C-alpha cells in the first residue's frame, strides 16, 4: 500500500514528525519557500493587476526534484507548513509544483508538534486557504514595491548600498523621533523632603531602630506641595523641624494582584529581553527550536511549546485543566482560582491561535534541563513559568498607608508586604527599567493621635528625565501598540534596521545613527504616507481584512501604488543629492598621508582613510586607554552578534581583550588594570580589578541628584 507524504518547511520539524508518525507516512522538508520573487528585479507587473513573477530560488532544484519523486509515489500529499500566512503561501507554492503530479493534495494545520496534535490534524485536512495566501502575497508585493522603488532613489541621492522598507522605515522613524524628544528635553529641578520618624517608647527614652520609618511630605492644607529650589527646600526643613508629628488616618487593606496572560510573540520577546538580555531575533530562533522538537530523553523527540508566532492569549481548555491539576498537586488547592482564567486578546488578534505555552505542563523546566542547551532551557523556563502562573490564584498584598500631620503639613508613609503569594510563587513579570521589583517593607503599629519623634529631615534634589531610548523590548511593545507589523515581523524589523546601520545598540538601548537620521528625514519629508505610523497601521488592518476575505488584495495594492508612484516622481525631481561628509579626526593616514575620518560600518564606528578606495587603511576607534600588555591603544570592538568588547589595536600581535571597559588606572593592590563592570541603566558602574585573584573593588557612591520620572510627582 502506498504511503502518504507529509511536507514541512524545516528538516528539524521533519525529523520530529518522523518519530511521531508511523510507517504509513513519509516526511520531507521543503527547506523554506520553493518559489519567490526574483532578487535582481522588481518581479511585479504593476500594469496588469500586480501579477507577481515567481521563480524557483537558486539551489532549490534538487529539493523540488526529490519532492516530485516522492509525491508521484504517495497516496496523498499532506502540506504541514506553519499555521500562518507565510506557511499557507509555502503550501500554495508546493501545491502548484506537486499538483500536476499528484492531485490528492491536502493542507493540514497544527499548533504544536506532538503526536496527538498531528494525528488530529491528519483526521481533519482542508484545502489551501486562498484568503491567507492573498494576504501574504499582498504584504510581500507591498514590501517589494516600497523597497525596490525607494532604495534606488536613495542610491542616487545619498549613497549606494542604502535601502528602505515599508515597515522597517517606520520603526526607524519612531527611534529618531524619540531621539529628538531627548535632545529637546529641558530638565526641571524639583526637591522632595522625607522625614525619618520613630515611635516614642513608653518611658520617653529613645525609640528603637525597629520602630523607625520614613514619610514623604506631600501637601500643605488641601494643596499638593511643589518644591522647586534648594532655598525653598531649606526653608521648609527649618519650619518642619519645629513642628510636632502626629499620626492621622491609618488605612490598611488587602490588594489583589493578578497574574499576566500567557505569552504572545511580542510579550515573549519583551520579557526575554528584560530578563535574559536576548534580542528579539535570538529569542525567536530558540523558540523555533522548542516548537519544532527536541530530544528529551526517554520520551524521545517532541515539540516542547506551541506555535511561537501568535498574538492571541487563548488557551485550550485541556491545557488549562492540566495546569490547574499541576498547581493543586504542587502548591495546594488554595493556589488555584475557582474558575480557569481566561484572557482577552487585543483587537485584531488571531483568535483561532493559542498563546505560547508548554505542550505539557508535566515537562517541568527541571525535568527537561539535562536535555536542553542553556538558552533553550532559559526560554523554555520563561514560557513554562509564565503559563503556569497565568492559571494560578491572585497574590494578596497587605498594604498600609498612614497620614502624618505636622502643623499644616501632610506627610504620608506607606508599606506593603505579601500576605498570600499566589502566582508570585512561580513567576513575576519583568520591568522595562531593568530593576527588580521589591516590596516596600512594613511599618510599625501606628494609631491615630499617636505623637512621633522626628529623627531627621532629608531634602533631596531631583531632575525630571527625558523619555528613555527604546530597548528592543520597548520597541516591540511600541510597534504592537501602534499596530505596526505582526508577530512574525517584529524580530526581522529590528535586525534589519540594525544591519542597515540606521540604528545601533549600546547598553541595550537603540540609538539612531547619523545615517539613520538623514535617511529618515528625507523619507518623512517626501513620502509622508509611507512613513506615517497611522497609515502603516491601517495597512496592517487592511491586510487582515484580506485574510478574512473582506478585502480584495489587488484593489488594496492599487489604492496604495497610485499615490506612492506620484510621490516617487515628485521626489526624484525635488530631492537634491546629499553628500555625507565623514568627520575628520585630525590625524594623517599612516599609509598615504591623507586625513583619517570616522566612518560607520555594520559593527559601529571605525577609523578609515579618506582616500578610500585608493587607500584601504582602517582601524577601530580608541577609548583613550593604553594596553596593559604592550602600551598599544585599547579599542572598542564588536562580536558578530553586536556585543561590545575591548582589545588592543595591535591584534593579532597583542591578544589583550576585556569584556569590561578598561579605565586606564592600575589596581593599588596588585597593579593590574582596573575595569568598569557593566551596570543597569541609571546605576554607576563598579570599578574592579581585572585580576580575578584580586578582590579590590570601588563601590560607586550614591548620586547627588536623583533622576525623576519625567514629570513632577
Give the arrangement of secondary structure elements:
Blueprint: E1 4-8, H1 11-20, E2 25-29, E3 44-45, E4 51-52, H2 61-73, E5 77-79, H3 85-98, E6 105-107, H4 115-123, H5 130-157, H6 168-184, E7 189-199, E8 212-220, E9 223-224, H7 230-240, E10 245-257, H8 265-276, H9 280-292, E11 294-295, E12 301-302, H10 317-331, H11 365-368, H12 374-390, E13 395-406, E14 409-420, E15 451-463, H13 472-481, H14 490-499, E16 503-506, E17 509-512, H15 514-526, H16 533-548, H17 553-574, E18 583-588, E19 595-601, E20 604-609, E21 618-620, E22 622-626, E23 633-638, E24 644-648, E25 657-658, E26 661-666, E27 673-677, E28 686-689, E29 697-698, E30 705-707
Helix pairs in contact: 3-5, 5-16, 5-17, 6-14, 6-15, 8-9, 8-12, 8-13, 9-12
Describe the structure.
With 713 residues, the chain is an alpha+beta fold. It has five domains: 125 residues, Rossmann fold, CATH 3.40.50; 151 residues, Topoisomerase I, domain 2; 139 residues, Topoisomerase I, domain 3 (Distorted Sandwich); 126 residues, Topoisomerase I, domain 4, CATH 1.10.290.10; 87 residues, no CATH class. It is built from 17 helices and 30 strands. The strands form eight sheets. It has a six-stranded antiparallel beta barrel with strand order 7-8-14-13-10-15. A four-stranded parallel sheet has the order 2-1-5-6, sandwiched between helices. Strand 28 and strand 29 form a beta hairpin. The chain is globular. The termini are far apart. The C terminus is likely disordered.
Amino acid at each position: 500500500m502506498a504511503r502518504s507524504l507529509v511536507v514541512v518547511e524545516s528538516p528539524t520539524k521533519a525529523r520530529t514528525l518522523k518519530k511521531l508518525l508511523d510507517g504509513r507516512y513519509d516526511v520531507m522538508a521543503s527547506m523554506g519557500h520553493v518559489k519567490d520573487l526574483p532578487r535582481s528585479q522588481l518581479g511585479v507587473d504593476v500594469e496588469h493587476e500586480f501579477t507577481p513573477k515567481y521563480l524557483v530560488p537558486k539551489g532549490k532544484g534538487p529539493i523540488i526534484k526529490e519532492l516530485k519523486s516522492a509525491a508521484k509515489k504517495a497516496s496523498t500529499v499532506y502540506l504541514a507548513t506553519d499555521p500562518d500566512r507565510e506557511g499557507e503561501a509555502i503550501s500554495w507554492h508546493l501545491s502548484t509544483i506537486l499538483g500536476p503530479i499528484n492531485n490528492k493534495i491536502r493542507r493540514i494545520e497544527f499548533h504544536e508538534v506532538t503526536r496527538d496534535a498531528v494525528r488530529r490534524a491528519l483526521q481533519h485536512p482542508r484545502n489551501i486557504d486562498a484568503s491567507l495566501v492573498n494576504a501574504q502575497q499582498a504584504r510581500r508585493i507591498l514590501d517589494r514595491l516600497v523597497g525596490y522603488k525607494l532604495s534606488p532613489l536613495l542610491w542616487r541621492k545619498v549613497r549606494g548600498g542604502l535601502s528602505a522598507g515599508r515597515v522597517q522605515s517606520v520603526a526607524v522613524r519612531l527611534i529618531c523621533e524619540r531621539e529628538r524628544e531627548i535632545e529637546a528635553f529641558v530638565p526641571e529641578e524639583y526637591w522632595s523632603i522625607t522625614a525619618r520618624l520613630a515611635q516614642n517608647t513608653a518611658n520617653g527614652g529613645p525609640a528603637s531602630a525597629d520602630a523607625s520609618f520614613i514619610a514623604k511630605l506631600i501637601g500643605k492644607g488641601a494643596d499638593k506641595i511643589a518644591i522647586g529650589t534648594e532655598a525653598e527646600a531649606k526653608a521648609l526643613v527649618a519650619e518642619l523641624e519645629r513642628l510636632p508629628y502626629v499620626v492621622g488616618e491609618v488605612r490598611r487593606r488587602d490588594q489583589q494582584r493578578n497574574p499576566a496572560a500567557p505569552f504572545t510573540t511580542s510579550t515573549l520577546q519583551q520579557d526575554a529581553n528584560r530578563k535574559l538580555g536576548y534580542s528579539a531575533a535570538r529569542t525567536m530562533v530558540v523558540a523555533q527550536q522548542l516548537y519544532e522538537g527536541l530530544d528529551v530523553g526517554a520520551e524521545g523527540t517532541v515539540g516542547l511549546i506551541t506555535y511561537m508566532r501568535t498574538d492571541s492569549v487563548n488557551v485550550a481548555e485541556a491545557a488549562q485543566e492540566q495546569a490547574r491539576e499541576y498547581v493543586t498537586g504542587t502548591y495546594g488547592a488554595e493556589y488555584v482560582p475557582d474558575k480557569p482564567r481566561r484572557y482577552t486578546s487585543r483587537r485584531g488578534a488571531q483568535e483561532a491561535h493559542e498563546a505560547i505555552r508548554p505542550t505539557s505542563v508535566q515537562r517541568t523546566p527541571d525535568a527537561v534541563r539535562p536535555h536542553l542547551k542553556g538558552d533553550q532551557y532559559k526560554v523554555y523556563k520563561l514560557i513554562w513559568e509564565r503559563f503556569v502562573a497565568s492559571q494560578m490564584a491572585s497574590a494578596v498584598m497587605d498594604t498600609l498607608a498612614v497620614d502624618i500631620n505636622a502643623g499644616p503639613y501632610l506627610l504620608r508613609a506607606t508599606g506593603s508586604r505579601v500576605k498570600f503569594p499566589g502566582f508570585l510563587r512561580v513567576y513575576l513579570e519583568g520591568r522595562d527599567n531593568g530593576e527588580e521589583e521589591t516590596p516596600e517593607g512594613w511599618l510599625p503599629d501606628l494609631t491615630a493621635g499617636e505623637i512621633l519623634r522626628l529623627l531627621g529631615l532629608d531634602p533631596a534634589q531631583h531632575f525630571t528625565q527625558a523619555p528613555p531610548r527604546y530597548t528592543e523590548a520597548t520597541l516591540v511593545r511600541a510597534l504592537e501598540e501602534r499596530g505596526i507589523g505582526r508577530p512574525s515581523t517584529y524580530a526581522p524589523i529590528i535586525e534589519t534596521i540594525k544591519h542597515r546601520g540606521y540604528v545601533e545598540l549600546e547598553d541595550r538601548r537603540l540609538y539612531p545613527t547619523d545615517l539613520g537620521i538623514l535617511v529618515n528625514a528625507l523619507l518623512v519629508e517626501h513620502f509622508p504616507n509611507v512613513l506615517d505610523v497611522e497609515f502603516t497601521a491601517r495597512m496592517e488592518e487592511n491586510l487582515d481584512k484580506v485574510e478574512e476575505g473582506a478585502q480584495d488584495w489587488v484593489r488594496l495594492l492599487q489604492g496604495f501604488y497610485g499615490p506612492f508612484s506620484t510621490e516617487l516622481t515628485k521626489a526624484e525631481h525635488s530631492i537634491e543629492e546629499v553628500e555625507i561628509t565623514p568627520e575628520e579626526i585630525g590625524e594623517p593616514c599612516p599609509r598615504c598621508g591623507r586625513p583619517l575620518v570616522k566612518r560607520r560600518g555594520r559593527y559601529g564606528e571605525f577609523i578609515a582613510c579618506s582616500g578610500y578606495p585608493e587607500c584601504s587603511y582602517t582601524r577601530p576607534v580608541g577609548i583613550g586607554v593604553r594596553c596593559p600588555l604592550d602600551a598599544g591603544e585599547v579599542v572598542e570592538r564588536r562580536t558578530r552578534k553586536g556585543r561590545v568588547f575591548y582589545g588592543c589595536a595591535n591584534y593579532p600581535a597583542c591578544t589583550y581583550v576585556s569584556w569590561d571597559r578598561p579605565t586606564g588606572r592600575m589596581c593599588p593592590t596588585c597593579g593590574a588594570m582596573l575595569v568598569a563592570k557593566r551596570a543597569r541603566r541609571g546605576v554607576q558602574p563598579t570599578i574592579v580589578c581585572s585580576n580575578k585573584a584580586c578582590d579590590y573593588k570601588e563601590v560607586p557612591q550614591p548620586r547627588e541628584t536623583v533622576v525623576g520620572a519625567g514629570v513632577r510627582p
